Amino acid sequence: MALQDTSPYDTPRRPRGPIALTLLALLGAALFIGFVALGNWQVHRLAWKRALIARVDSRVHAPPVAPPSRNEWSSVTAEKDEYLHVRLSGQFLHDRQTLVWTATDEGSGYWVMTPLRMADGSIVLVNRGFAPADWCGRDGHCAPGPDGETTVTGLLRMSEPNAFMRHNDPAHNIWYTRDVPAIAAARGLQDVAPYFVDADASAGKDAQWPEGGKTVIDFPNNHLSYLITWYLLALMVLGAGIYVGYDEYRLRRARSRRLGGGAGGGRGGGP
């Protein structure tokens, strides 16, 4: 007698039940809606980032203007004012200077933050630029800066909070961020603007430190790749849903044919 192959792999898979199909449908709908929402959010973020880059670029390359005055300080915001190209005049207070640790393409060193007292008595902290760690020498005496009335052009920047891993230590004169209120308090400065100014590079090629014009303007813009990713995931979920739906239709149709054929065979017998 011939043996029959009764391998379980020859048994057709049964269609999913209504509970399983409902759960799959809910999961698929939630994933699809979520991915589409994330893609739409990235579309808005892309438009915002492009507008920000265009706005900053127009400010950086515009002719310098007067910085916000004392009666405008309360309304200064990053969105409205940061990277504004400004010109200001006054006298540097070199005895109240602050060195802030940093790293640039020149290596490790300092931002040289020097208060500039303007004609109305208000003070703006000016980042005169980068200086290497050995700029002040072993005796701690830094090279003298501009004396008398001085005009500075540069980019308006907002005060920086403490770094994530490193915190300023005013008591020991250790600084890692350009925190305007903290520096002003440590140096006993009054009527200080809530922003600072990154000085432009010197017009002439001068080997003397500090070196201005070192502002890094870099706004990562990966939103296009993000939105493509989210939309592709949404399409994959939609494709998976179509495949599951077609597979269920095929299984149910095949099962219906088998059941119909078996019932017909049972009714067709006779002597």
Structure report:
The structure is a single chain. The chain has 271 residues and is of the alpha+beta class. 37% of the residues lie in helices and 20% in strands. The chain has two domains: 18-64 and 219-245; 84-199, no CATH class. It has four helices and six strands; from the N terminus they run H-H-E-E-E-E-E-H-E-H. The protein has a five-stranded mixed barrel. It is elongated and about 105 Å long. It starts with 17 loop residues before the first helix and ends with a helix. The model has no long low-confidence stretch (mean pLDDT 86).
Layout of secondary structure:
Blueprint: H1 18-60, H2 78-81, E1 85-92, E2 98-104, E3 107-117, E4 123-132, E5 149-158, H3 180-186, E6 192-199, H4 223-267
Parallel strand pairs: 4-6
Antiparallel strand pairs: 1-3, 1-5, 2-3, 3-4, 5-6
